[in-house]
TrEMBL record:
<keyword id="KW-0862">Zinc</keyword>
<feature type="binding site">
    <location>
        <position position="134"/>
    </location>
    <ligand>
        <name>Zn(2+) 2</name>
    </ligand>
</feature>
<dbReference type="GO" id="GO:0016832">
    <property type="term" value="F:aldehyde-lyase activity"/>
</dbReference>
<feature type="binding site">
    <location>
        <position position="104"/>
    </location>
    <ligand>
        <name>Zn(2+) 2</name>
    </ligand>
</feature>
<dbReference type="GO" id="GO:0005975">
    <property type="term" value="P:carbohydrate metabolic process"/>
</dbReference>
<feature type="binding site">
    <location>
        <position position="178"/>
    </location>
    <ligand>
        <name>Zn(2+) 1</name>
    </ligand>
</feature>
<protein>
    <submittedName>
        <fullName>Fructose-1,6-bisphosphate aldolase, class II</fullName>
    </submittedName>
</protein>
<dbReference type="InterPro" id="IPR013785">
    <property type="entry name" value="Aldolase_TIM"/>
</dbReference>
<dbReference type="Pfam" id="PF01116">
    <property type="entry name" value="F_bP_aldolase"/>
</dbReference>
<keyword id="KW-0479">Metal-binding</keyword>
<dbReference type="GO" id="GO:0008270">
    <property type="term" value="F:zinc ion binding"/>
</dbReference>
<feature type="active site" description="Proton donor">
    <location>
        <position position="82"/>
    </location>
</feature>
<dbReference type="InterPro" id="IPR000771">
    <property type="entry name" value="FBA_II"/>
</dbReference>
<dbReference type="InterPro" id="IPR050246">
    <property type="entry name" value="Class_II_FBP_aldolase"/>
</dbReference>
<feature type="binding site">
    <location>
        <position position="83"/>
    </location>
    <ligand>
        <name>Zn(2+) 1</name>
    </ligand>
</feature>
<feature type="binding site">
    <location>
        <position position="209"/>
    </location>
    <ligand>
        <name>Zn(2+) 1</name>
    </ligand>
</feature>
């Protein structure tokens, strides 16, 4: 069942869990996420990135496919466009039919970020679409998003930003990274930063980007089959779960699913070199993707079992 993102956030904040946002780019990845959500009876957000938008031959058509698929499950599903680099791209996403759009002005000055986010908010709200903005910078590179340094979100600036733009949720920088970074240990997620932001914005939905944890077993599963994935570190799964105590109600999780899929496909191709039917190895990849999403819902976000549509909870 398709719902507005603000309804997803409201229940997550009330019951102290996080809604996982998972990027999809084709029918297999779409079905993997929705099947996982159905089995876990979990709310979920389907996300498309600029990379996915450029990958599919017809972006509007793919959004319609997402809507049809999401309408066929019993759990609440939001549809969001992640990391639009320009106001124009965000407005195009709104016109394509998404329920939420994220404008990323984190690379801009505070004043420019306010200006362009405000333009997106005005355009989107008149069309019933929620807007996620970003303040602060995450290090790393993932799907056309790059920053070579970290800049934690300033709590006071966050309060002013939300008041000036009218955005519906705010992606903050508190320790996570896009795609991970080279480090000996997991990165610390700075709860004190989240706590100070929450104090300035009580009851306001906060978002963590770069919330994939890059667990070693997923990297090893790829490399054992001939891959050369570099070992990277990010914040731990347990720290992501704790962030729900400080206003985080949405977390973007992408890379771990890619690793799970790639490891499974490589294994089939290596162990069954006579197979050439894509359905054989893509099915295993999809099942691995689904399994990883189910793990995230049950063990990381805490969203399993929170099907408030089935419960009849009003948001």
């Amino acid at each position: 069942m398709i719902v507005q993102l603000d309804r997803l956030y409201a229940d997550a904040m009330k019951r102290r869990y996080i809604v996982g946002a998972f990027n999809v780019f084709n029918y297999d990845s779409l079905c993997a996420v929705l099947e996982a959500a159905e089995e876990e009876q979990s709310p979920v957000i389907l996300q498309v990135s600029m990379g996915a938008r450029n990958y599919v031959p017809d972006f509007r058509q793919f959004i319609e496919v997402m809507k049809i698929a999401a309408s066929g499950v019993s759990v609440p599903v939001g549809i969001n466009h992640d990391h639009c680099p320009t106001a124009e791209a965000a407005m195009q996403a709104v016109d394509a039919g998404v329920g939420g759009v994220m404008f990323d002005g984190s690379h801009l000055s505070f004043e420019e970020n306010v200006r362009f986010t405000g333009e997106v908010v005005e355009y989107a709200h008149t069309r019933g679409v929620c807007v996620e903005a970003e303040l602060g910078r995450l290090p790393g590179f993932e799907d056309e998003v790059f920053a070579d340094h970290v800049e934690f979100t300033n709590p006071g600036a966050a309060k002013r930003f939300v008041a000036l733009t009218g955005c519906d949720s705010l992606a903050v920088s508190a320790g996570t990274s896009h795609g991970g970074v080279k480090a000996a240990e997991n990165l610390p997620l700075h709860m004190e930063v989240l706590e100070r932001i929450q104090a300035e914005l009580p009851g306001f939905p906060l978002v963590l980007h770069g919330a994939a944890s890059l667990p070693m077993h997923l990297i090893e599963a790829v490399n054992e089959q001939g891959g050369r994935v570099e070992v990277m570190k990010n914040c731990s799964e347990s720290s992501i779960r704790r962030s729900a105590e400080y206003g985080v109600c949405k977390a973007n999780m992408d890379v771990d699913n890619f690793l799970a899929f790639t490891g499974a496909v490589r294994r089939v191709l290596n162990e069954q070199p006579d197979k050439y039917d894509p359905r054989v190895y893509l099915k295993q990849g999809k099942n691995a993707w689904k399994k990883e999403v189910m793990w995230k819902m049950s063990q990381v976000t805490g969203s399993s079992g929170h099907n408030w549509v089935k419960e009849g909870v009003r948001q």
